[in-house]
Amino acid sequence: MTEHVQNLINGQWVEAGGDKLDSRDPANGELLATFRQATNSDVDAAIAAAKAAFPAWKATPQPKRAEIIVRSAEILLKRKEEIAQLMSRENGKPIAEARGDVQEAIDMAFYIAAEGRRGWGHTIPAEMPNKRMYTIRQPLGVCSLITPWNFPIAIPSWKSYPALVMGNTIVFKPAEDTTLLGKRWAEVLIEAGVPAGVFNMVIGHGAPIGDKLVTHPDVRMISFTGSTRTGLGIATKAAPLNKRVSLEMGGKNPVIVWEDGDLELAVNAVMWAGYGTSGQRCTACSRVIVHEKVHDQFLKMLVERAPKLKVGHGAEPDSFFGAIINEGQLKKIDEYVQIGVKEGAKLECGGKILKDGAYAKGNFYAATVFSNVKPGMRIEQEEIFGPVISVIKVKSYDEAISVANGVQYGLSAGFISKDVNLCHKASIDLDCGLCYINAGSTGAEVSTPFGGWKNTGNGHREGGPTVIDAFSELKTVVIDYSGKVQKAQIDNN
Q1: What pTM was estimated for this model as a whole?
Q2: Which end of the chain is more exposed for a tag (fewer CB within 10 A), N or C?
Q3: In the annotation, is 104 catalytic?
Q4: Which of 143, 282, 432, 435 is an active site residue?
């Protein structure tokens, strides 16, 4: 049954004012949902509702705000399978990964809810007698949350929960490819008891409404996950307005396989990190940097196994990876493969759109491996966001680190070796926000800071205790009970 999705504004489902759009299963084209493009007027209404709801939500005790988040986790637990099954259809990822996506939101809820009683400040010793100093955290105000399609429940949870527990109000824009899952997220929060106006949702493509979500004078903070190009554009527009911006953008993540590394572990780790979610993760392994002594054996093992991975509908339990999110992304992947061939890389396997039989109506791409990839090639430098792995041969540790760090991104990296000392050295030398030793490039947990260096991000982190920094203001409180004016250093010297 096809659903119709509307904006959520001030606790009411309201029809958007723009063109008709739809959401389809990327594996077979089945129509799942219809909706209309949100307009700037819709965004204005959502921001106005969030602004009006802010004073009461800010005044709600932080432990009480956290209780609502706990209730949302309980709702997600009950609806986990239902939402996961929908995700395998609207997003295309295998059902096991879809369940993990929902579970990550559940884990995030329980983790962030603890901030309801743990959003600590600090007491600070004063240099003068009869004086007390301490810090507190307070909410920012209205936050625009803009999320991608690849983790359509997990990433909204990374942003919504810390924003809510710290007392902010929200205007949420889910990706247009996963609009129905955006509605499910909103339903969970409403059922949990988030008050009207505290959480609002506008739907559709980002281009028509993006400027309004970023530049509206009542928006205090923008949290964005998506492409580097779009993220840097947001930063450019927000900077003159002195708005807080949290950006999580692209990656070109390496795994280094050293000469003493466990090759069985390495191949399995690389295939999971490179082909899981069809390579559509910002942390996906797209480059494998292999020591020359084990390069040929590693490449042989990878090329033998990659074509055997089951590519199919996400609802099929034995699918290793599923459909590409849409036709445009499918074509982009294939264009990069052709670029790699023209650049002189050797196409070892894959490199084609799957069109026959069960693949005929969907957006499927074969597991692809390139060898003879050289630093500086476009397929080595640019984010492809698909099931394409480039293998690069190196002779020395310094060369491996140089190649790994020689891109504009710095999100995640893996290092596979039995040399404990070298593993510790690599954890320091790799330019990345997430470093995995004897693992691939994926697998972040909610209790750890998530984010990257260079053009991957702008310093904020999602997950872990540091996520609270992005969604709160720090205030220093000074109390002088001496009964007289006490001069500080600047007045006494």
Answers
A1: 0.96
A2: N
A3: no
A4: 282
The DSSP line for 134-193 is EEEEE--SEEEEE--SSSTTHHHHHHHHHHHHTT-EEEEE--GGGHHHHHHHHHHHHHHT
Q: What is the dihedral of CA 342, 347, 351, 357, to 10 degrees?
A: 140
Residue 489 pLDDT grade (very low, low, confident, very high; cuts 50, 70, 90):
confident
Helix 179-192 vs helix 154-165: angle between axes, to the nearest 10 degrees?
Answer: 30
pLDDT tens digits, 63-72: 999 999 999 9
d(CA 104, CA 170): 21
Local structure of residue 418 (DSSP, 8 states): S
Count CA within 13 A, CB hemisphere, residue 376.
2
Q: What angle do CA 162, 163, 168 make, to 5 degrees?
A: 145
Which token pair is 414?
């893996």
Tell me if residue 248 is catalytic: yes
Identify the active-site residue in 90, 97, 104, 248: 248
**Alpha carbon 399 to its chain's center:** 30
Nearest-CA neighbor of 250 among 276, 270, 277, 280? 280
Contact 474, 459 (CB under 8 A): no
3-state helix, strand and coil shares in percent for the chain, rounded to the nearest 5? 40, 25, 35
Domains of the chain (ranges plus CATH)? 3-249+457-476 (3.40.605.10), 253-437 (3.40.309.10)
| pLDDT at residue 487, rounded to an integer | 87
- Find, among 136, 211, 230, 233, the residue nearest to 475 by Cα: 136
Taken in order 348, 354, 357, 359, the sign of the CA dihedral is positive
Which residue matches tokens 């909706």?
A: 35
